[in-house]
Amino acid sequence: MLTHLDDKGHAHMVDVTDKNNSSRVAVAESVVSFNADTYRLLLDDALPKGDVFATARIAGIQAAKKCSDLIPLCHPLMLTSVKIAFAFNDENHQVTIEAMCKVSGQTGVEMEALTAASVAALTLYDMCKAVDKGIVIGPTRLLEKSGGKSGHWVADQSESGE
């Protein structure tokens, strides 16, 4: 059985030596809510720190690549793809960040996708905080994962943050 606890109850990194390599994909999202004025500045590319979305995209990709340095007991992975996309909800002044991570390996990429979406959201906050400190981040959640022993899983869409 895979567990982060050893036979003495101590935390350890799971041994995936005997697991088969397979194509694994995970998609996560993080929703960021702004006040109306900040949201408009964001869409108009009129914030003082420059290209907010390019910076958030790079931050998300870098975070996915460094996930094992950030999350204890997370396996270091050679990611084959990381994509960050943004969707806009004008009515609620929200940006939804979607992070997709892909690997061919012995363990999944859920943590990498969640980390990428979270860090991209934090970067949006950082890039906008000079004009709005009331930005709200969340929910952040896994949307889908495929590959590995547990197969394909998709989140219940009724739990969406929008």
UniProtKB/TrEMBL annotation:
A Pfam family recorded for this sequence: MoaC
Protein name (Swiss-Prot/TrEMBL): Cyclic pyranopterin monophosphate synthase
Underlying gene: moaC
Kindly state which keywords UniProt assigns to this record, in alphabetical order: Lyase, Molybdenum cofactor biosynthesis
Q: Does the keyword Lyase apply?
A: yes
Q: Provide the catalytic activity annotation.
A: (8S)-3',8-cyclo-7,8-dihydroguanosine 5'-triphosphate = cyclic pyranopterin phosphate + diphosphate
Q: What class of enzyme is it?
A: lyase
A Gene Ontology molecular function term for this protein is: cyclic pyranopterin monophosphate synthase activity
Q: Record-annotated residues binding substrate?
A: 73-75, 111-112
Q: Which residues form the active site?
A: 126
Q: Cite the EC number.
A: 4.6.1.17
Kindly list the organism's lineage: Bacteria, Pseudomonadati, Pseudomonadota, Gammaproteobacteria, Kangiellales
Specify the pathway: Cofactor biosynthesis; molybdopterin biosynthesis
UniProt function note? Catalyzes the conversion of (8S)-3',8-cyclo-7,8-dihydroguanosine 5'-triphosphate to cyclic pyranopterin monophosphate (cPMP).
InterPro entries under this entry?
MoaC, MoaC_bact/euk, MoaC_sf, MoCo_biosynth_MoaA/MoaC, Mopterin_CF_biosynth-C_dom
Describe the protein's quaternary organization and the partners it interacts with: Homohexamer; trimer of dimers.
* GO BP annotations, alphabetical order: Mo-molybdopterin cofactor biosynthetic process
Family (UniProt):
Belongs to the MoaC family.
